[in-house]
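Q: Sequence in, structure out?
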Amino acid sequence: MPKERKTPKKPKKKLTPEQKAEKRRRKAEFETIFVGGKQKRVRRRPLIEGLDPDEFIRRNADPIWLHQNELWEHMEPLPEAPQELEVGKPF
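A: Exactly. Output:
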C-alpha cells in the first residue's frame, strides 16, 4: 500500500523573465560533462559557423595565412611538378 502524503505538495515556482534569460545564457555558455562519475560544468568551446576553430581553419585557410600564423602542421605538401622530357632522349 502506498503511503499517504501528510502535507500537500507545494506548487513549483515559475521563473521570472530575468531568471529565464540568465538560465539560457548559462546553458549557452557552459556544458555538463561527467568526470569520475560526477557532473561538472565546463565552458563550451567557441564555435565559428558551427565548427570548432581548428576545423574552421583547416577548411578555410590558405597556405600564406597558415605560414604567417605558424600553423605549418595544417599545411598540405605542394603537388610535385611533372618533369619535362628532354628533346632527343627516349624516356
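The CA atoms of residues 4 and 10 lie 15 Å apart.
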